[in-house]
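Issue 218. Parser rejects a valid record. Input:
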Amino acid sequence: MQALSAKEAKNNFGRMIDLARTEPLVVEKHGRPVVVVLAVEDFEKLTGDRIIPSRAKDSL
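Output the parser choked on:
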């Protein structure tokens, strides 16, 4: 599992998204893991929840 500092994640948000789409990604603050970023598909598999795109919510 790859890790990025919070500063790297902030400054390279697009790269963070690309990395997280291939495998879960740890974001660290002051060298301590604080969050894991993962692809929507992985989240849905883990939780059983379906993520509805925000543009689709407007029509509900």
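Fixed in the parser; the record now loads. The CA atoms of residues 19 and 25 lie 7 Å apart.
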